[in-house]
Amino acid sequence: MNENKNSILIVDDDTSNLMELSHILRSDYKIYAVKDGANAIIKAKESLPDLILLDVIMPGMDGFDVLVELKSDKRTAEIPVIFITGMQTNDKESEGLSIGAMDYIRKPFDTKVVKLRVSNQLKIVNLQRELQNAVKMAEAANKSKSNFLASMSHEIRTPMNAIMGITNILLQKPQLPKDTIDALGKINSSSNLLLDIINDVLDLTKIETGKMDIAQEEYDLERLLIDVININTPRLKNKPVKFILEVDEFIPAMPVGDATRIKQVLNNLLSNAFKYTHSGEVTMDIAYEPKNDGVMMEFNIIDTGVGIDHEQLKILFEDYARFTTELGGVTVEGTGLGLPITKKLASLMNAELSVESTPNVGSKFTVRLPQKTINDKILGAEAAENLRTDRLPKDPSIGFVRKKMPNASVLVVDDVEINLYVTEGILEPYELKVDMAANGLEAIEKIEAGNTYDLIFMDYMMPQMNGLEATTLLREKGYTAPIVALTANAITDKAEMFLQNGFDGYITKPIDIKEVDNVLNKFLNSHISH
Ligand code: ADP
After folding, report:
1. Residue 273: CB within 6 Å of ligand 1?
2. Which atom of ligand 1 approaches the CA of 306 most closely?
3. 255 DSSP β-pair partners
4. How far apart are CA 221 and CA 223, in angstroms?
5. Which residue of 133, 142, 191, 411 is surrounded by the most CB atoms within 10 Å?
């Protein structure tokens, strides 16, 4: 019972006042009593009372001095103070209130008034405490939710790697019946959608936990725009929609910012424009204005699509707001997380994202993005013209030719058997010599036994010895051939971490066949048979 009682520190140099107040309050509260300012401060720091009743006029430190001192210490600053005063002047009262006193009680004491003033103040204290606890619990719950989501999306990547990898392996086989190709194509696109959802959830989690860092690096704007166009134009394949790209040729060619996040923002907006437009045009217009240390870039993505009505517009950037799940009988794929993430990414980059839209007429999304510049290089007329014209629908995932490298040998290190099966299958068309190891230790043993490899694909998380340890050890032993990490960990920002730790590159799971192709062409270039 005693434990739940609020505690009060009473400070007064007059013993009879101390006794009287103690007497009034003793039955309801735990009381500490001291007779001067210096002791008041010592006691307050030691016992952290819920409330302090403080006499104003005392020899030595007076009430005002004590209050100022209490406010200057983090531990005692929030303890409410009621002044005990015999003074009748409002002047002094306002002085006390202005430096942080909560209330006044007057001598001679009126028992009822004292009790009420004290209990009112403590009600506030207790409510604040409950609120703080609620906030703490909500934060803890949010954190554990985020951690849960992060580890789940990691776990989901292994089976996703199998589903997507095996689908790709089967699609590589020659002369498949058409219905099989169709079915595999559907598995492929559903897997890609599922992966998008997982990545969205992961991004939201990263943003919520403050782990989404924004890079400040020089990037090639033309390259960035080509990537964005290549990813999105395949969506136009069968639609009577014209894609128009206009870019100011004087825009800086190498701005400083976060290319990955800018791509993500533009991808989201452009893919929506393509998704929700059935005929007419989608325009991406890129302009800029000079700013003191760089430029304000403006990206306008304008479509003649279904549009968004007034009510939807109001909640467009809120999490989980999903509207048009059905368009003319066709369900449109998506999570409704794209725009909230886009908005959050934009604000992390100090960019503004705005939208105007009219139902059945179209929408215009605008991103105003401040970017620094460290050189004067401009995009130029030729690049601007290329971007404007070189935008035929391309599907980057199909139709690339795998070069044969029969003289090259590759070691794949992974503890999950199905991952080995998938990587081996993806490598098969290259006709490489493929060897496998189940963990880092086994990989090192193979190399020490005299086996040589032109390239190692090294899983990151493995029992016995993980990829990082194995690579560090190999490098210490003087091993110089390229090692590329395979990772299902999408939370930590990887690029730098891998490159700093002896890896020559990394591929995230589920493994993208195009990325594997890039890696093989880069590191096994001299082994390509012609
Ligand atoms: P998703 O497209 O995955 O559902 P988004 O957050 O990207 O999620 O978009 C949320 C909703 O906003 C979409 O479902 C759609 O109704 C609407 N929307 C977004 N962009 C457009 C657009 N360009 N034209 C019409 N509606 C759009």
Report:
1. yes
2. 25
3. 373
4. 5
5. 411
